[in-house]
Amino acid sequence: MLYFLKQIWKSRDIPSAALLLIILATGTWMAALPLSTSVQQTFLRRFHLASSNYPAWAVQQIVPSMYNFENKYWFSHRPLSQDVINELSNEDTRIVNATGGMTVRRDTGIDSEIVSNMINHFPTRVATFADERIHLKDNPKGLYYFRTRYRGQEIKSTFKLQPGTTTEFKLRRLETSFE
User: Fold this and answer.
1) CB neighbours of 118 closer than 8 A, spacing ≥ 6?
2) Which ranges of the chain would DSSP assign to H, the alpha helix?
3) pLDDT of residue 157
């Protein structure tokens, strides 16, 4: 490594130096994750699409996604209280769906099915890309509740889902909070 650095310095290889600087900065940022609450909150905001601004979000895209966060989501056609979400988050029951994923579904009456699951990373993608969107076919309005935890830090977000066109949904953030 030392020889490599000397070669870059001697040859004034700007692209290699820039690449090395990016790699070192990314490694330092990732190493700071378990040590700094501000770095932890920055990562958590990224997972909920709640970064302070676009450049802050864009710069983090070179950092690998962390799989050691606890990401859960709940979807309901009706508003859920925090007590209901806390109760559901403590359940151990899981139902395996057709794709082999684990999903909890609770049918509590017309238009009030609650779908919940754990997801590896970027929980907000459930509302856009995941196979769970099938439950929106007949009633495309609802609320998504997301929670991500890491080392005592927790972020919660609530999004309202509304139909846009026949092939699109509008996802509007209602709330994001740290605890």
Assistant:
1) 70, 71, 72, 102
2) 2-11, 14-31, 37-47, 54-59, 82-89
3) 92
Burial 62-72 (b: 16+ CB within 10 A, else e): ebeebeebebb
Amino acid code (one letter) for 100: G
Query: How many domains in the chain?
Result: 2
Give the domain range for residue 28: 2-62
Greater pLDDT, 127 or 67: 127
Are residues 85 and 40 part of one domain?
no
Backbone angles phi and psi of 67, in degrees to 5: -95, 5
User: Could you tell me which residues come within 8 angstroms of residue 25 by beta carbon, excluding any fewer than 6 positions away?
Assistant: none
Looking from the CA of 83 toward its CB, the CA atoms found within 13 Å total 0
- Read off the pLDDT of residues 144-168 as tens digits, 9 standing for 90 and up: 899 999 988 999 999 998 877 767 7
